[in-house]
Write a structure and sequence with these properties.
It contains 4 helices and 7 strands, in the order ααααβββββββ. By secondary structure, it is an alpha+beta fold. The strands form 2 sheets. Strands 4-5-6-7 form a 4-stranded antiparallel sheet, with no helix packed on it. Strands 1-2-3 form a 3-stranded antiparallel sheet, with no helix packed on it.
């Protein structure tokens, strides 16, 4: 007995069709989500270790000796640059060159005192500098056999043994 309404069987067929399509979409979304999560999990896992052992691999130093030599030179250059760049540019150098001591005493020393000329004086809080015969000297340093005892604003006191000499700054005439 086929007593059913043709419109009702048509609408039931459509409902079944929508239901199947909807379930297929939900299933596809679940499969995509599962596969996508699995791929992301595989990406976060580190790759398997290499199968070759260290003894089987060739040494890179043997393959590229010139490159290794070049990198050693570059490293030494970098160390040298670091050493140079760490120096304070406002600090004075290590020390000024020392004056030579005379070999003979007496008469030549008198000529050396006359040859010493005070050209300038730089007076500071801690370290004063005198310019004698175009050489920079500080207190305690030697020049032509004389030790610099004191540096004043317009004069320098030198001492050699028991003899003391005072050099005055030349006038600008």
């Amino acid at each position: 007995m086929d007593g059913g309404d043709p419109r009702q069987s048509k609408s039931t067929g459509r409902i079944k069709m929508y239901l199947i399509v909807g379930l297929a979409l939900v299933l596809a979304a679940l499969v995509y989500r599962y596969l996508h999560a699995r791929a992301a999990r595989n990406r976060s896992i580190s790759p398997p270790p290499a199968t070759a052992t260290v003894s089987e691999m060739p040494e890179l130093t043997d393959l590229y000796p010139e490159r290794q030599q070049k990198t050693q030179i570059e490293r030494s250059n970098i160390r040298e640059l670091r050493r140079l760049s760490l120096r304070d540019i406002f600090a004075p150098g290590k020390s000024l060159p020392k004056a030579k001591r005379p070999t003979k005493r007496g008469q030549p020393a008198q000529r050396e005192v006359k040859s010493l000329k005070l050209k300038g004086v730089i007076v500071g809080d801690k370290h004063s500098i005198a310019i004698i015969n175009d050489k920079f000297v500080r207190t305690g340093e030697r020049i032509n056999g004389y030790r610099v005892v004191r540096i004043g604003e317009k004069e320098v006191l030198l001492r050699s043994g028991n003899k003391t000499v005072k050099l005055r700054l030349a006038s600008n005439d």
